[in-house]
Amino acid sequence: MKPVYNASSVLTFLGGFMRRLGSWFSFFLIVTLATSSLQAQLDNADKQLARDIFQQLIDTNTTESVGSMTAAAEAMAKRLRDAGFPATDVAVLGPDSRHGNMVARYRGTGAHKPILLIGHLDVVEARRSDWTTDPFKFVEKDGYFYGRGTQDMKSDDAVWVADFIRLKREGYKPDRDLILALTSDEEGGNANGVDWLIKNHRDLIDAEYVLNSDGGGVNTVNGKPLFVSMDGSEKLYGDYQLKVTNPGGHSSLPVPDNAIYHVADALSRLEKYKFPFELNAVTRGYFQRMATIEHGQRAADMKAVLKTPSDRGAIARLSEDTIFNAIMRTTCVATRLEAGHANNALPQTATANVNCRILPGHSREEVRQQLVKIFADPKVEVRYVANDGMVTDRAPEKLGYSPVQLRPDVMQTLDKVAAQMWPGAPVIPTMSTGASDGIYTNAAGLPTYGISGTAIDMDDVRAHGRDERLGVQSYYNGVQFYYLLLKALTGGK
């Protein structure tokens, strides 16, 4: 075992001493030793366990096409049972043999209602020919772990399993139960695990609130922590099919009424269109906090968009950044295109998929109708595509969920632990520009907070992309972060 230091006492002593030195080096040394003292608590055995769990998950193919979520769920269940969790507290259950979900309960004193931890086991597809390594083999090189799911989100699944085992080994007794649900089909498919558990086994996962590590995280620039994000809101996901049909004909007799041209024109109009600017409680808080760590024109623009009315020039300048643009408005983008049946024939059908991420307070049907207005072409049918692939004339009219209330007990604890791990990097509530299983838990009345402890450089986000990777130290810091956070939230012994 490596020695365990008291970070607070070290900081107090060095703070007084270094103030007398009065050099910039003092602050650097304090931060370095504080971070080292925290990392010292994660000994070699803990690191090896965490690495082994991570590798096992990456090496298990959990794509919808050929993978098995059940295999990953069973593997994690076995690790928990082998670590001493009663078999009655660890279950794998689901609608079929491939879409199993693991639910494990870490028993506490029962003084408070449980906390539910959710993470998905499935990953998006990946082709070996696109990658420099095998996407379904865990590879460590150049200070990174490579593999599909290293960022999204098998790293966090492994963090929780490793921390459950570590806490169990230490004999820790939380003041409430901790429930871990590792689930299927967040990335797609028609067997979403969180939705299925809520509908079929609500008793197993009922909780006071939810921690969702498929959101939030440590945002870094060249490895330096800039801020720690906590997703208190997220956009609503929606897919729409554009379809044009006509009789077709011989390609030697071209006509202007070409199905492909209609779809192309519609997509061109969409490319130029910007949905209205809009802020909510979380995104206003985001720009308020970001303005304190940004500089120059960008900081001024963040302050200007908060005014009433918002400064149009500031909105335009911030919108040039894709992330800020997505935070301030609904976004829709073409993701798939298909047309024609032969090289020498006019197309009888042309279709495209438009994927939208919709601001809270708006519905999928509202956006579908807006797309019809944008395209302004009666020949372009705009229909809604559900998660199971079913195409319907109308979309759901349920509004996207409002931001969650920021509980002081959660936020203050997060502030404290983040300050220990990453001094000087503030916690900033954010709205996820994507979507997660939080849509199901929030809808079920379970307030959900997107919190992850892994750090990713803001220009190295590779989730869903080629050569997905996560820094080795970032992963181990994530293990330590959630170990500290869970203990701080549950006040046990």
Please tally the helical runs, counting DSSP H or I stretches of 4 or more residues. 16
Biggest β-sheet description: 6 strands, mixed
Share of β-strand residues: 15-25%
- Using the CA coordinates, give the radius of gyration: 24 Å
Give the distance, in angstroms, between the N- and C-terminal Cα atoms: 20 Å
The third-level CATH topology of the largest domain is Aminopeptidase
Top-tier CATH class of the largest domain: Alpha Beta
Secondary-structure class: alpha/beta
Strand order of the largest sheet: 1-2-6-3-7-18
Name the poorly predicted regions.
1-40
Q: Work out the number of β strands.
A: 20
What proportion of the residues is helical, as a percent range?
25-40%
Task: Describe the 3D structure.
This protein is of the alpha/beta class. Helices cover 38% and strands 21% of the residues. It has helices spanning 7-21, 24-39, 44-59, 69-82, 154-170, 193-200, 202-205, 259-272, 281-290, 296-304, 312-319, 322-328, 364-375, 408-421, 438-443, 472-490, and strands at residues 90-93, 101-106, 115-120, 139-141, 144-146, 178-183, 209-212, 217-221, 224-234, 236-245, 249-250, 331-339, 345-346, 349-358, 381-385, 391-392, 427-432, 448-450, 455-457, 469-471. The strands form five sheets. Strands 1-2-6-3-7-18 form a six-stranded mixed β-sheet, sandwiched between helices. The longest helix is centred in the last third of the chain and has 19 residues, at 472-490. It is globular and about 80 Å long.
Give a brief description.
With 493 residues, the chain is of the alpha/beta class. Helices cover 38% and strands 21% of the residues. A six-stranded mixed sheet has the order 1-2-6-3-7-18, with helices on both faces. It has a five-stranded antiparallel sheet with strand order 12-14-10-15-16, with helices on one face.
